[in-house]
């Protein structure tokens, strides 16, 4: 499944969560998805993103175990369905939104619980979501910088080539217009 679609599925599942166990399961799913997207970008993504992507993958990998949930213990992650990452910018933007929503949902769980263990699990998961968001923001900044540099290179190339491009104005061969044909006949 394409990354953007998986992010959308995760966001809908989080929005439909009813109660603490569902929210914790979706927080774990989001971190597993962050790990999968990070791994994919580290292996196959733009070169500018590979370092940050490895970091995102590592954060997602170590934070997934902080949440004690049956899905986490069983290792049944929606992220295993990730098959494509066609548009890194769009996938990262969606992932960032998902991680922010997960963080807010976990804050709600932490505020409502009397269980100290659950409270600290939520705090660790919130920290992991924040750290993952920082990595995603870093990758989005790198994509913006790359796009700006490419645009500047393109503009510099146009300035160097002049208003008619690299080859100058296109000259029509004599004889293709009525006046040109007339001049060609005079020369004969």
Q: Describe it for me?
A:
It is built from seven helices and no strands. Helix 5 (88-112) runs antiparallel to helix 6. The longest helix has 46 residues, at 116-161. It is mainly alpha-helical.
What's the gist of this structure?
Helix content is 73%, strand content 0%. It has 188 residues and is an all-alpha fold.
Could you name the key traits of this structure?
188 residues; mainly alpha; 0% strand; elongated
The helix fraction, in percent, is over 70%
Distance between the amino and carboxyl termini: 70 Å
Which strand-content bin applies to the residues? under 5%
Mean pLDDT: 84
Q: What is the helix tally?
A: 7
Radius of gyration: 27 Å
How many distinct beta strands? 0
Topology (SSEs and partners):
Layout: H1 3-15, H2 20-44, H3 50-63, H4 70-74, H5 88-112, H6 116-161, H7 178-187
């Amino acid at each position: 499944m394409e990354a953007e679609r998986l992010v959308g599925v995760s966001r809908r599942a989080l929005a439909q969560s009813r109660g603490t166990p569902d929210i914790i399961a979706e927080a774990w799913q989001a971190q597993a998805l962050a790990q999968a997207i990070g791994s994919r970008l580290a292996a196959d993504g733009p070169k500018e993103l590979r370092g940050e992507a490895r970091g995102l993958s590592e954060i997602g990998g170590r934070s997934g175990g902080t949440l004690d949930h049956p899905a986490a213990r069983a290792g049944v992650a929606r992220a295993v369905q990730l098959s494509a990452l066609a548009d890194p910018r769009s996938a990262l933007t969606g992932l960032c939104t998902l991680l922010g929503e997960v963080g807010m949902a976990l804050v709600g769980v932490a505020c409502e619980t009397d269980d100290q263990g659950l409270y600290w699990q939520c705090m660790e998961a919130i920290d992991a979501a924040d750290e993952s968001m920082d990595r995603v923001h870093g990758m989005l900044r790198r994509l913006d910088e790359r796009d700006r540099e490419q645009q500047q290179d393109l503009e510099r190339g146009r300035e160097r080539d002049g208003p008619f491009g690299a080859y100058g104005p296109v000259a029509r061969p004599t004889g293709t217009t009525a006046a040109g044909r007339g001049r060609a006949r005079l020369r004969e």
